Amino acid sequence: MTGSGKTAAFLLPMMQRLLGKKPGTTRALVITPTRELASQIVEHFNALAKHTRLRAAAVYGGVGYGPQERAFRQGVDLIVACPGRLLDHFRQPYARLSGLEVLVLDEADRMLDMGFLPDIRRVLQHLPRIDQTMLFSATMPAPIVKLSRDLLRDPVRLDVERPPAPATGVTQTVFPIRQNLKSRLLHELLERDEIGNVLVFTRTKHRANRLAQFLGKRGVSCDRIHGNRTQGQRTRALADFKNGKTRVLVATDIAARGIDVEALSHVVNFDVPHVPDDYIHRVGRTARAQAVGEAFTFVSPQEKGGLRAIERAVGKRLPQRTLEGFDAGDPGEELEIPIGARMAAHRARKASDRQRSRTNAGRPAGGRGPRRRRARRPRRGPSACPARG
Fold first, then answer.
1. Which pLDDT belongs to residue 363?
2. Less CB within 10 Å around the terminal CB: N or C of the chain?
3. Are 18 and 27 in contact (CB under 8 A)?
4. What's the pLDDT tens digit per position in 77-133?
5. Contact 207, 331 (CB under 8 A)
6. What is the percent of the chain with per-residue pLDDT over 70, rounded to a whole number?
7. Each residue of 296-318: pLDDT tens digit?
């Protein structure tokens, strides 16, 4: 179950194993699907190892290579890495993990969803024979079961609370709402203080940006996190959300796994996820470690099929609610411009740019229009020149 403590379940015995070893050699490697999850694991490791000499380093893209190269050369005890950047380092001679003893594949189902399986297999080709390999996954679909059989030697399978379900402390509620009224409903819930600090999940990066702009214009402290933002922007947005500087963090599913915010009161599924497992991970960001929290899901008429799939996965009908006094007859605001309209606007801008270029052709910097060339007079011959006295 998400939030049940599986990160500590592999970190604590790993640390116990590393405590008696001579420093200067990397003996443990954790592979994760996202940068946020890698940072979180390193943060947990450092907190648990506070009174020891054990050190960990994160290796992922979007940041400079220098500190990561030093971690390889100095041999920190644990490296937590994303597959792509790890393969980049393996092209260099300093990234030889010959002393590796423990390998952990964390959030294996998410790595499968993100297409990392070929990268994982390439990573394994660079590693020595390892004493212990562990694969952790909040859900165990059939491809992950096959992956465990391919990658592990005589694996022992441990299941905790299956089939997968949201944490028992999550109160789940469905709000039936038209698509163009979702942003207004969220703002109304925030205005009425029915929502405290909230992680809001949208279907696309474009919708995350538009929703953050919508809330920001109305005075709500808000930021967003998705794949088009730089690593520095993502790190700052997450840090500001954790320390309370921002009340709302809008995210795509890149953040559904790997965000651990203490005392997060609410999760809002602004868009119904396509896969029920993603719903479980999203709502699992609240009510972690036996805490309590609420998960609201905004369901438009077009998304009812997705809601039924989620209800089948969790094994129950989710209670529905409407917000008393909310004006459902308002025209609202459409966050996502239809692709046809966006393409038409793009073509119109390009045509306007071409016309502007033709108009400005030959115009000098001062903008007075093209300068006329004076006709050159024919040269006079010697006989045409009057004699000068």
1. 60
2. C
3. yes
4. 999 999 999 999 999 999 989 999 999 999 887 787 777 888 888 898 899 988 899
5. no
6. 80
7. 999 999 999 999 999 988 888 99
Report the sign of the C-alpha dihedral through residues 215, 216, 221, 226, in that order: positive
Above 90 in pLDDT, residue 177?
A: yes
Closest C-alpha among 287, 5, 312, 294 to residue 168: 287
Q: Are residue 190 and residue 308 in the same domain, yes or no?
A: yes
Query: By residue range, what is the domain housing residue 257?
Result: 170-314
Structure tokens at 21: 């070893």
Residue 150 CA to residue 138 CA, distance in Å, equals 19
**Number of independent structural domains in the chain:** 2
Does residue 186 sit in the same domain as residue 307? yes
80: β partners: 30, 58
Q: Measure the CA–CA gap between 206 and 4, rounded to whole angstroms.
A: 32
**Does 376 map to a domain?**
no
User: Half-sphere exposure (CA, 13 Å, Cβ side) for 112?
Assistant: 19
Are 176 and 285 part of one and the same domain? Answer: yes
29 beta partners: 79, 103
One domain, residues 227 and 308: yes
Residues 195 and 308 in one domain: yes
Residues 6+ apart with CB under 8 A from 273: 201, 203, 253, 279, 282, 306, 310
Nearest Cα residue to 160 out of 135, 134, 133, 139: 139
Co-location of 57 and 174 in the same domain: no
Q: What is the CATH number of the domain that holds 78?
A: 3.40.50.300
Cα 30 to the chain's mean position, in Å? 19
For 83, phi and psi rounded to 5 degrees? -60, -45
Do residues 223 and 241 touch, judged by C-beta distance below 8 A? Answer: yes
Do 144 and 176 lie in one domain? The reply is no
Residue 332 within any structural domain of the chain: no
Q: Is 51 left (phi over 0), alpha (psi -120 to 50) or beta?
A: alpha
